[in-house]
């Protein structure tokens, strides 16, 4: 009896590892060379859920369908995960996806902190990285990678479009409320550069953690500085809360202007037109821009659960569509074997899709397309659901983006 | 309050029959068997399981063992151990990335910072006992969290990214997961055996005396506060080592590791495994880390399950896995 | 020099007012913690989660049932209080004979469960809850700042609630039983008072206070699952500074530390989130029992 117990002791100690063993990695990837796996890694529960989240996954699925890749004998599978806006969580998922689950492409990745962490991993493992919702220019700057395409927008283009327009109206002293991570810092730096180049001054800046709820004391600090413009270098619900609380504290009553440096149409939807009217914002896609964007929106709308696509979602669609075109061109096996070669081929091929029209991908991984400045409509101007934007200004693709020479991307110098 | 509160960690009275021949490093017989088993798992593990997962597990196991030194053998419940773990991670990452130190030195730097932080916070916290001690450590850890949030070197929400694993002793590249694994396994074993040595030393016996009856230890002439502070510092230093190792494994140090939820997690691991047992924390870490890993796709449900385990342990299984198994087998693990 | 200081203060006055609003929440939460601790000797780690549940109940009442802010201010604490009764009866009461630390661990586990459930159900980005019509509309012009009416109301409500609690405990017969039971439960039981029931109700009352604070907070901070956990640790520091000794002590410390935090935002904003913890360390070194605590 005692003896039995002793032997049980051993198995008992090993017991703790059973769950680990049970979940043993399926190391062997699918044997058919024509099977690809796309991982959509984004925020499914936090501040950026609306601008990425399940809508991005639906757009990726739409791209697979529209590409007709299945008919060419390539089977594409989609997996998705929530990185919870934490760089370590995102990095762990990406490693496991690539090491164990055989993921070939990682798509979307909002939150620049996570976006940069994934950038390094995908490069190390030689896979493909199609970033749409991350904003930092580092992705095509110092940390640019031969495995990365940065599709939709970045902080330079936002600063130039929105910041430039604000400065033109005589806003020459700024105070920034900045989200304390790569994206916020980047956006603040780029906007400051435009403000200062136009002869303006930056009077101060305050940094807040992601996912803050009470911005009143930051707003008062901004007011204390007597700046004419409060620049919001943040995004998602952080921006929404800032705009709401600025109204609550009567910040704009004393003539201070709010510059929303990044806003998606979903944010306008959450704010409501009454609160958002008159704000300007920059996007590279609007569902009601032209016949092609409307056609795309109509195709995908049914699977979005009431949401509408923003530029970030459109970027997921378009980048995956272009990737699959490249796969069809290269052949599934070749595309799977070498991520860098696939991205090189993507850069060599011109792009064309319903969301962004015709365009190109630059050597440093930057996708080029026109950029639009919109003004949010007044409630009485809006004629239907999600009819929110008036087009104010279009910046052509050649002028909108940071010149390669300023990016210090090592790929280009080489 | 009604009734005399029982001691927080009930000592297991059963001694295993002291058979000669099978007792190494001060372990009793059952512990020796368990230790050999542990060695076997360490050796075979990386060939069976995903090495990155095993490394994560070992880092947390060392963290839990360090924490257990304090709660299991001194009876102090620290609710702020994340500050040592997280800060150790930040400093090791900074040392490896910015100063270019070799990995073993970076890990040691993490441990050193843990020790310094441990001396300061311990000096403040040991003025109070029981719940107050727990709340004070928690509050101090939150302060460290805010400092990490704002200090420029921690990189805010970005954390310190792309930390190089470097070359061990300047010779062996740690970039391949297997090489890194052997270093992590070595660090874990060294820490584990060090803690075991401390427990069985005369110093460790005094700690146990303090846990069992503090006034009597004082009346016997022991300077209880000094003992507590030394134990606190040792525990903090080892937690720093664990955090530093983890940062090198994943190449990233972030706020997650300094957040108060991490302090709660290590309490949970130790509680599940068995407070005041030698192998309990390792088992607890294995259970919790595997659970987090394989249930990750369920998102916030992991938190709910962890909470349920917490509640179940407190209400029904206060001795933890090692304690319950030990009671059942009539041995001390 | 002094003029400069006054100028700074004038500019910073709005921050001090905001500090008072934060102080109102510190006071209400540390009050609830003190009531529970005094009677049950349990540090209620789930206090932050219960604060959050209070806010969510208000949100659900509005969006699912159509019950507005004012009824919610009474209903939500009752609902959450009833939930507290269940928790106390089924779990917490089983730990009274053990070390107090087990109470802390149990409520920590409960906090994880509650937070996780709400994160699953509602995501973590927060839900909007509009202030009642009576208190919305244009902000009040205080001369040096615009203050939303609602925030004024929060301070007033917190002061009234704290006073009411203090009066109940210090001036009524029920309060006298409570205080007596805190000193010697067995003796009070011998006098024929149902002590276990009193403990249950005390826990429920403490939890209801947290929920009340939650409803107050809903229109200010958007309703989200983490709203309590970040606050509760600061409140722990407040409690350590004040000492667990007196009800009035926890209220005064709560408001006082809110003000200190606001002042720090004027002179050295970077330190505003750490100042309370620094004060805690200093108080512990000088007076380990806290400002109002008995050693």
Summarize this entry quickly:
The complex is a heterotrimer of chains A (414), B (333) and C (295). Chain A has helices at 2-15, 18-22, 53-67, 87-99, 112-125, 155-168, 182-197, 216-224, 236-248, 265-271, 273-276, 291-301, 311-330, 332-337, 339-348, 397-400, 404-407, 410-413, and strands at 35-42, 75-82, 105-108, 128-131, 148-150, 173-179, 201-208, 229-233, 257-260, 280-283, 351-353, 357-361, 367-368, 371-376, 389-395. Chain A is an alpha/beta fold.
Q: What would you note in describing this structure?
A:
The complex is a heterotrimer of chains A (414), B (333) and C (295). Chain A is an alpha/beta fold. Chain A has helices at residues 2-15, 18-22, 53-67, 87-99, 112-125, 155-168, 182-197, 216-224, 236-248, 265-271, 273-276, 291-301, 311-330, 332-337, 339-348, 397-400, 404-407, 410-413; strands spanning 35-42, 75-82, 105-108, 128-131, 148-150, 173-179, 201-208, 229-233, 257-260, 280-283, 351-353, 357-361, 367-368, 371-376, 389-395. Chain A folds into 2 domains: 35-153 and 289-369, Rossmann fold (3-Layer(aba) Sandwich); 156-283 and 372-399, Response regulator (Rossmann fold, 3-Layer(aba) Sandwich). Helix content of chain A is 44%, strand content 19%. Chain B has a domain at 50-260. Chain B has helices at 29-48, 51-73, 82-97, 103-125, 130-150, 177-200, 202-212, 214-219, 224-250, 260-273, 280-294, 301-315, 320-329; strands spanning 167-168, 172-173. Chain B has a two-stranded antiparallel ribbon. The longest helix of chain B has 27 residues, at 224-250. In chain B, 58% of the residues are buried. Chain C has 295 residues and is mainly α. Chain C has one domain (16-112, 142-286). In chain C, strands 1-2 form a two-stranded antiparallel sheet. Chain C is globular, with a radius of gyration of 20 Å. In chain C, 55% of the residues are buried. The mean pLDDT of chain C is 87. Chains in contact: A-B, A-C, B-C. Chains B and C meet through helix 5, helix 10 and helix 12 of B and helix 4, helix 9 and helix 11 of C. Chain A: Belongs to the leucine-binding protein family.
Oligomer description: heterotrimer
Strand order across the largest sheet of chain B: 1-2
Mean pLDDT of chain B: 86
What separation lies between the terminal Cα atoms of chain C?
A: 42 Å
The strand count of chain C comes to 2
Family (chain C): Belongs to the binding-protein-dependent transport system permease family. LivHM subfamily.
Protein name (chain C): Branched-chain amino acid ABC transporter permease
Pfam families (chain C): BPD_transp_2
InterPro entries (chain C): ABC_transp_permease, BCAA_transport_permease
